[in-house]
Amino acid sequence: MELLFFLLFAGLAIAGAVATVWMRYVVHSAFALMGTFLGVAGLYVLLGADFLAITQILIYVGGILVLILFGIMLTPPDRTERNAKRVIGFSASLVAIALFLAVQIGSVVRWAEKSNLEAPKATAAPIGRELLRPDGYLIPFELVSVVLLVALIGSVFIARRRKAVRVDDSSTAAILAERGTLQQKAGA
Amino acid sequence: MLASFSGFLSVAAATAVQHADAGHAAAAAAAGPHWGFTDQDMMRLLAVPLLPLFAYLIQIFIGRKLPRQGDWLLTGAMFCGLGLALYEFAKCLGAWSPDFQVSSRAMGLGWKFLSSTETSLGQPVPNVIAGILYDNLSAAMLVVVTLVSSLVHLFSMGYMHGDSRYNVFFANISLFSFAMLGLVLSDNLVFFFVFWELMGLCSYLLIGHFYYKDSARKACVKAFLTTRVGDTLLMIGLFILWNQFGTLSFTELYGKVEQLVVAEGGWPLWLTVAGLLVFCGTIGKSAQFPLHVWLPDAMEGPTPVSAMIHAATMVAAGVYLVGRAFPFLSPDARLVVALVGSFTGIFAATIGICANDIKKVLAYSTISQLGFMVAGIGVGGVSAGLFHMITHACFKACLFLGSGSVIHAVHTQDMREMGGLRKKMPVTYLTMLVSTLAIAGVPLFAGFYSKDAILAKAVERALLDGHWWYWLPVGFLFTAAGITAFYMFRLVHMTFHGEPRDREKFDHAHESGPTMAIPLIVLGFLAVICGYGYHHGIPNVWPEHGGWFQELWRDPVPHEIAHKLAGAHIHDAAHVEHVQHLAHNSAMMGSLAVAGLGILLSCAFYLWRKLDAAAWARTFGPVYTLVLNKYYVDEFYSKTAIAGTFLVSKVSSLFDKYVVDGVVNGVGRTMRGISGGSAAFDRVVVDGAVNFAGLGTQAVGSVLRLLQSGRIQQYVTLSVIGLVLLLAVLILR
Amino acid sequence: MGLAGYLIVAAILFALGIACTVARKNVIYVLMGIELILNAANLNLVAFSRFVGGLDGQIFAIFSIILAAAEAAVALAIVLNVFGLFDSIRPDDPDLMKE
After folding, report:
1. What string of DSSP letters covers A101-157?
2. What Cα–Cα distance (Å) separates residue A91 from each residue in B281, B671, B676, C42?
3. Distances (CA, A) of B453 to B147, B381, B582
4. CA torsion, points A63, A68, A71, A77, in degrees to nearest 10?
5. Within 10 Å of residue B550's Cβ, how many Cβ atoms?
6. Tens digits of per-residue pLDDT, B139-153?
7. Is-contact B41 B92, C-beta < 8 A?
8. Where are the domains of chain C?
9. Alpha carbon distance B100, B106 (integer Å)
């Protein structure tokens, strides 16, 4: 039964990833990515990480995917960018290399895998305690909250609507202007 | 691994570190009661670098909103730092001992990081404890750095007035000061290196302050990249030291090196190499001979920045590094240090004769004086070299700020358009004249004492050692001293004396305001007095003491001399004392002679007009052209190093385009070929041939095109290839 | 299912993530590829935490998810900015640094 679910979720994750790489339209890829996220969440459940599974769905599907969809919405579609040969070549060669290395490493490295592990219990409460224990992960936890705040402010700052590039500000404007004329010439 | 990571962060929060190192406990006990220094003193010392840092942080966030764009905040922070530094310096003088040394390690304070409970090969992994080392050298450096940078802050309030990036400028020079102060107080090479790199960044930002000028942009990149060459070598040196000794703390390194040398009866080759690599950091940062090219270009920055770089921060850090590293430089490494330093001294001085830009003259004079300091340390006169660094900080800061004042008044940097400014700018003239007298080595001014000490040390070294190559630095240094006197007076004559050459600019000129005049006066005053007390005490103030410099900074006695002294060699103590006396007298006579000659010649050329400079330049035509073009070092680099880099990037780009992409495309085609039949093979061969032909054509056609690909995905591909190769090596090993 | 199965799934996801980052000429795909890579790494962490014992792996995965969220926000802002400046979202177009 567990094997069945493992195959189901692993298949969902891998199929989603393959579809993400392959789809012609970026929106389709984004939805395929949701399949991967859900499949990985299922694998987390099988691994007894219930809190992480919920977090995965909440943050990846509910947050990051929505962000990516916003990104897609705000940029123009590009139907011609996919180079099928390139995509197949990269995917196939990279997967082959990864599997080869994984098997090689698996045959060389000996993990401290424990045979008599107790069945997983609910993890939310122990994780919470560990995160707030002063000699546990309290300081990384606080630091990461600062990082989130900085990222929030930073992204707002970067993405804010600004006036046209000031000409006296840098040579960027000059270079861009030059390019624009070149492109116009090429177009004409 | 995870535990150690969280361990690092949690220990980072607590400042107190217990360490059960037995050797340390013993050392701490031997040092006595920390010379009366308490935890509060350590906090005050820590505050000296942290004040500018906090001011910097406030400034970058809300600086623009503050009244006067926040310049008072940063200047105030620097002056508070100066006050604290002076207070602690007084305590250090109160101790009055050459063994004075307070370190936070011995007091059980410090910030432990990179700590780990893991073991490697049964040994605990060495860790790094950040801490403060405060001895006579850091005490003096701290005062000089805070003094010069607070005066530069004050000067900038006038000089940079009205600049569009006034607030950014102040923030950056504060960060610069923070980095230098942190470097001076670091007790280990790890943190030393961190601040060292931070200073590289600040110099980049400040040299490129006028970034809309093309030359400034080029200069800041050049400075950054050139010093990076030295920094990389320095880092390799640090790796060697860490690998061999398991520590990078200065005090521990000194002890371990001494043990090693005594145990082995000599200096191992790898230690020589490590010492030379560390010295390469100095070559880059202090602009010594092969890597000096960035410093003259760094004049593109605003003049106060030049004063900072040349007097208090950047280049002083390099000299400070050799001084600190001296005990683990082997005799061979010291000889190289002395040769490089003295050669730089004469090399840069000759270029200084021909330069016409007032700031360029000062830049080459800085390189030359840095050569003096480095050579002084190389011949064993650590205290002399570092003393010259301190006196040089005073008079060179004064000269730069003075030149800034001149440029501010006449709006040109070309000395050929100046002249006669003496009447218009009396304060600037007097302070610069005093500093010029100091740098030229005229008795009773600061530079005389320090330069004389270096020359004496070089002569003494040559007399004691007897090999002919120890006479090379002596010859170089004396010549350089004479040339220095010549071109510095040339600067003064061309700028201040004679008739104005450009009447319009002359009429426009005026004396600068008080924020610019006060630093000049203070520094000019220091350029006179800060040399006193090197050899002799001040009779009425400290009757019981001799010269503070010689009593407080004993030169570390090199091991081989110590051994010779212990053995029955001819170099007994009386002989050494005799040689020292002889060397001192001859050096003083010699330096007086060359300085006087240089000054007389410059007067003959530029003041009395008895000799015609242009005619002499024609006489020495080829030599003059060679020197005027700075010996073509820049051209040499652009033909070799820079063109080489472009060639490598070009080749790797072609490699990527044809080999990497080719492999990927090939895999794709093969996959298709399996399903699609035999036609694909044909295409691969044909395409390959076409691509190959294309490669040849393109390689020939675009060799001279500058190519950095700028393609992100290509970078990712390359790093994945690297990862795969690494893993393959690890597995198949 | 033992540890090895999860590691192989993670390896495949990782490889596809790299392929997605490298093979497609659209910055959004680069972002998605990075998310795939991070998911693969997280899967490894959680699998090791399950089969070796201890909660450290899961806590690390939580940190990694948080940082992924921060990364996505900043990266999206950069993408929009690049689009505003260059009128293109192909990763090869913003190459002013080479001028």
Report:
1. HHHHHHHH------SSPPPP---HHHHHHHHH-TTTTHHHHHHHHHHHHHHHHHHHH
2. 45, 11, 19, 21
3. 24, 8, 13
4. -150
5. 19
6. 888 888 898 888 888
7. no
8. 3-98
9. 13
CA-to-CA dists, residue B324 to A135, A150, B196, B316, B683, angstroms:
38, 39, 14, 12, 66
B282 C-beta neighbours (distance < 10 Å), count: 29
pLDDT per residue as tens digits for the range B625-682: 766 666 677 777 766 666 677 777 777 777 777 777 777 777 777 766 666 655 555 5
Residues 6 or more apart in contact with residue B270 via CB below 8 angstroms: B240, B244
Contact (Cβ atoms closer than 8 angstroms) between residue B435 and residue B523 = yes
Q: Position of tokens 């045979």?
A: A115
Question: Please, which chains are in contact with C (at least 3 CB pairs closer than 8 A)?
Answer: A, B
Buried b (16+ CB within 10 A) or exposed e, B13-47: eebebeeeeeebeebbeebeebbebeeebbebbbb
Report the CATH number of the C3-98 domain. Answer: 1.10.287.3510
Residue with tokens 């076409």: B690
Which pLDDT tens digit goes with each residue over B347-401?
888 888 888 888 888 888 888 999 999 998 888 888 888 888 888 888 888 888 8
Nearest to C13 by CA among A64, B724, A31, A20: A20
Q: Which of B696, A81, B223, B653 is nearest to C98 (CA)?
A: B653
d(CA B397, CA B78) in angstroms, rounded, equals 16
Instruction: Pull the structure tokens for residue B702.
Output: 């675009």
- Dist CA B338 CA B365 (whole Å): 18
Residues 146-185 of A with CB under 8 A from B: 168, 170
- Residue B443 phi/psi, 5-degree rounding, is -55, 155
β-pair partners for B129: B112
Most B CBs within 10 Å, among C45, C55, C56, to test the B interface: C56
Cβ-count burial B423-434 (b if 16+ within 10 Å, e if not): ebbebbbbbbbb
Which residues, 6+ apart, have CB-to-CB distance to B207 below 8 Å?
B216, B219, B220, B223, B297, B298, B300, B301, B305
* Cβ partners under 8 Å of residue B123, min gap 6: none
Q: DSSP assignment, residue B213?
A: S
Largest CA distance in chain C: 54
Residues in chain C within 8 Å Cβ distance of A2? 1
pLDDT tens digit string along B480-506?
A: 888 888 888 888 888 888 777 777 777
Task: Provide, as residue numbers in chain A, all residues whose Cβ is less than 8 Å from the Cβ of B212.
Answer: 168, 170
Tokens at residue B436, please? Answer: 């010029």
- Residues in B closer than 8 angstroms to A143, CB to CB, are 9
Residues B211 and B309: their CA atoms lie apart, in Å, by 18
* B111 bridge partner residues: B130
Taking the CA of residue A77 and the nearest CA in chain B, the distance in Å comes to 20
What are the tokens at B146? 């805070």
What φ, ψ does residue B417 adopt, rounded to 5°? -100, 5
Q: Is the alpha carbon torsion for B268, B273, B277, B279 positive or negative?
A: positive
Closest-CA residue to B337 (of B386, B371, B301)? B371
Taking CA atoms, B610 is separated from B486, B487, B602, B604, in Å, by 15, 17, 10, 5
Neighbours of B62 (CB within 10 A): 12
Q: Which chain B residues are within 8 Å of A137, Cβ to Cβ?
A: 6
Distance separating alpha carbons of residues B299 and C57, to the nearest angstrom: 53
Each residue of C45-74: pLDDT tens digit? 999 888 887 888 899 999 999 999 999 999
CB–CB of B148/B312 below 8 Å?
yes
Contact predicate A37/A9, CB 8 Å: no
pLDDT of residue B554: 65
